UniProtKB/TrEMBL annotation:
The active site is at 136 (acyl-thioester intermediate), 253 (proton acceptor). It comes from Zingiber officinale (Ginger). The keyword Oxidoreductase applies. Keywords: Amino-acid biosynthesis, Diaminopimelate biosynthesis, Lysine biosynthesis, Methionine biosynthesis, NADP, Oxidoreductase, Threonine biosynthesis. InterPro entries: Asp_semialdehyde_DH, Asp_semialdehyde_DH_beta, NAD(P)-bd_dom_sf, Semialdehyde_DH_NAD-bd, Semialdhyde_DH_dimer_dom. NCBIfam families: asd_B, PRK14874.1. Belongs to the aspartate-semialdehyde dehydrogenase family. This is aspartate-semialdehyde dehydrogenase.
């Protein structure tokens, strides 16, 4: 007699991954409702050997739903998230709509699950609740940085990201493949999604650039890190800077992370801490120059971390450099959201 689950945005890349992860993890749902826009309503989907008809998203879609997994863009979350909560659902929202709302927990289960400890399905007073899934680049970065933060307290973090096409949706992934073929065939590349050539190229993340010169993706990393670490360590002061780049890779992000600590932390101790951390795999073989790559982590649950080394620009073991890769659709979105849902059971 598990929970009834709704998947909002089921036909998108993350929506489809929700179904894969629910199945892979034998999530104990009692029943499942697949919801999408009018355009996709009526589609037949097979999930765990059962046929489902995709239903058009409406307010009454949430009647009787215990957990609603949302990944249909910020406007749909803004419109239907509160409606689902009103009708008694616990919403796990993958959009950025509510991430910075002080009333809404922003959760990476391995990092700050205590932030959502007050929300449970069993014995609920019938009221719903909203929980926000962090941005993919934040999740992937903090999966590696947090175990070290716990040990030596990060005072400053500088991140450079190398973000996959999947972060811009299935159409961007398709365009990358199409452009690559076109370029190899000597044809003019079709540039509809990013208005510039993506294949054999890279460029500053497509998010809007703000008055401070940072783009929205970079500010998500800055603000979400502070909120997530503040919820676990009441530490609002960590200094964060980020540069987010879009690179021609299909579905896994890579990130270079520089950490400055309050207390000394040797690279050997750091490696040991990371080797013992849940959801992480250390790939750090200097002799054979083998370190994390997007292809190694694609469609996998674990985030890979390597290039663990003392930051030689810092004195007294107060700095470390890392290189991290994680699947943007899985741990960067769908898996993290369903791990949140598992905490509700
Ligand atoms: C990106 N983080 O990769 C965004 C998607 N949520 O573009």
């Amino acid at each position: 007699d598990g929970p009834s689950v709704a998947v909002v945005g089921v036909t998108g890349a993350v929506g489809q991954e929700f179904l894969s992860v629910l199945s892979d993890r034998d999530f104990p749902y009692r029943n499942i409702r697949l919801l999408a826009s009018r355009r996709s309503a009526g589609k037949q989907l097979t999930f765990e050997d059962r046929k489902y008809t995709v239903e058009e998203l409406r307010p009454e879609s949430f009647d009787g739903i215990d957990i609603a997994l949302f990944s249909a863009g910020g406007s749909i979350s803004k419109e239907f998230g509160p409606v689902a909560v009103e009708r008694g659902s616990i919403v796990v929202d993958n959009s950025s709509a509510f991430r910075m709302d002080p009333e809404v927990p922003l959760v990476i289960p391995e990092v700050n699950s205590e932030a959502m400890a007050h929300i449970k399905i069993k014995g609920r007073s019938g009221k719903g609740a909203l929980i926000a899934n962090p941005n993919c680049s934040t999740i992937i970065c903090l999966m590696a940085a947090t175990p070290l933060h716990r040990h030596a307290k990060v005072v400053r973090m500088v991140v450079s990201t190398y973000q996959a096409a999947s972060g811009a949706g299935a159409a961007a992934m398709e365009e990358l493949v199409q452009q690559t073929r076109e370029v190899l065939d000597g044809k003019e590349p079709t540039c509809k999604i990013f208005k510039q050539q993506y294949a054999f190229n890279l460029f500053s993340h497509n998010a809007a650039v703000l008055s401070n010169g940072y783009n929205e993706e970079e500010m998500k990393l800055v603000k979400e890190t502070r909120k997530i670490w503040a919820s676990a360590w009441n530490d609002k002061n960590v200094k964060v800077s980020a540069t987010c780049i879009r690179v021609p890779v299909m579905r896994a992000h890579a990130e270079s992370v520089n950490l400055q600590f309050e207390k000394p932390l040797s690279e050997d101790t750091a490696r040991r801490i990371l080797e013992g951390a849940t959801g992480l795999v250390v790939v750090d073989d200097r002799d054979s120059n083998r370190f994390p790559t997007p292809l190694d982590v694609s469609s996998k649950d674990d985030v890979a971390v390597g290039r663990i080394r003392q930051d030689l620009s810092q004195d007294g073991n107060l700095g470390l450099d890392l290189f991290v890769c994680g699947d943007q659709i899985r741990k960067g979105a769908a898996l993290n959201a369903i791990q949140i849902a598992e905490k509700l059971l």
